[in-house]
Amino acid sequence: MNFAGNHILSIQQFERDDVDRIFDVADRMAPYAQRRRITRVLEGAILGSMFFEPSTRTRVSFGSAFNLLGGEVRETTGFESTAIAKGESLFDTARVLSGYSDVIAMRHPMEGSVAEFAAASRVPVINGGDGSNEHPSQALLDLYTIRSEIAARGKSLDQLRIAMVGDLRYGRTVHSLCKLLGLYPGVQIVLVSPQALQMPAEIVEDLRNTGHSVLESEQLEASISNVDIVYSTRIQEERFNTQEEADLYRGRFRLNQNIYTRHCEPNTVIMHPLPRDSRENARELDDDLNDNPNLAIFRQADNGLLVRMALFALILDVVDDVDTHARDVRWYTGGRF
Ligand code: NCD
């Protein structure tokens, strides 16, 4: 695809070559994300960051990624602080805000809302999550992480075996990740969820129609014993009609060090889009995994910067100018990376 000036709304936009291109550019962003070099390539540019649903990582990493390329960020969070609370349509909001920004990152609770907004926007829009539909930049950073974690274990994406666990019905990250893995024919996928929270049937069908092995299961232990990656997810309680309904499923599948040691192959990678639910009745990924070197969740979150910087550089068409507007960092950076 041609990235320059285009929206990023769904994983369905991408071919495998596009993903390779994003990952190549993401690799080149490492010196900047790791605070060894500083670039001003987007000096003067403005990111409109519009998050109508709670967000920590996605919102802050989109903002930081833009800042690391030298741009500025204008931010709104929640409905209360915007004119949408006064009845303004997405169309009008998009027409107005796209006059104030060079690119917009947006999250909204309604499926299809970001695409509707993008259709009215005068600048490119990146979908930071539209309801339970999609979260394409998360899937890209997930796959970028999977690739680097399994490469370190001498394996490649084409033979990947992955188990996705938890709320596969409402979890937009796993929807986008499944669509992305659909580009890699040898990938084997195990979907572990309560019956009521299964992966949408059309996503499973699309994978099977492209020759992928997809198993659906309600058994955690048996499903994580022959995989390279366990990708855990939180019960998306905000999508349920009542808390009581969410309570039925919270805590159903818990991975902890004991289960990991007993059931997983050595060096199975543990991932989660975060936030993990650390409340007593949830704990889908227990804190006792924190010292396990195969817990990749914070490397995964760090990779969000690289991938989001790459998306901005591609969309605003400055990939080849990043290094020419760069110099070494002068402040103390410690041994963070
Ligand atoms: C996810 C989301 O918002 O979809 N978080 C994220 O963006 N990293 C997952 C979640 O909220 O459970």
Classification by helices and strands: alpha/beta
**Helix and strand pattern:** HHEEHEHEHEHEHEHEHEHHEHE
Give me the CATH architecture of the largest domain, please: 3-Layer(aba) Sandwich
Low-pLDDT parts are none
Write up this protein.
The protein has 337 residues and is α/β, with parallel strands linked by helices. It has two domains: 11-134 and 303-328, Rossmann fold (3-Layer(aba) Sandwich); 136-298, Rossmann fold, CATH 3.40.50.1370. 35% of the residues lie in helices and 15% in strands. The protein has twelve helices and eleven strands. It has helices at 16-28, 30-33, 57-68, 90-97, 113-120, 136-151, 172-181, 201-209, 220-223, 243-249, 257-263, 297-315, and strands at residues 37-39, 46-51, 72-77, 103-108, 125-130, 161-165, 188-192, 213-217, 229-232, 269-271, 326-328. The strands form three sheets. The protein has a five-stranded parallel β-sheet, covered by helices on one side. It has a four-stranded parallel β-sheet with strand order 3-2-4-5, sandwiched between helices. It has a two-stranded antiparallel ribbon with strand order 1-11. α3 (57-68) links the parallel β2 (46-51) and β3. α1 packs across α12 (297-315), α3 (57-68) crosses α12 and α4 crosses α5 (113-120). The relative contact order is 0.17. The mean pLDDT is 96. Bound molecules: N-carbamoyl-L-aspartate.
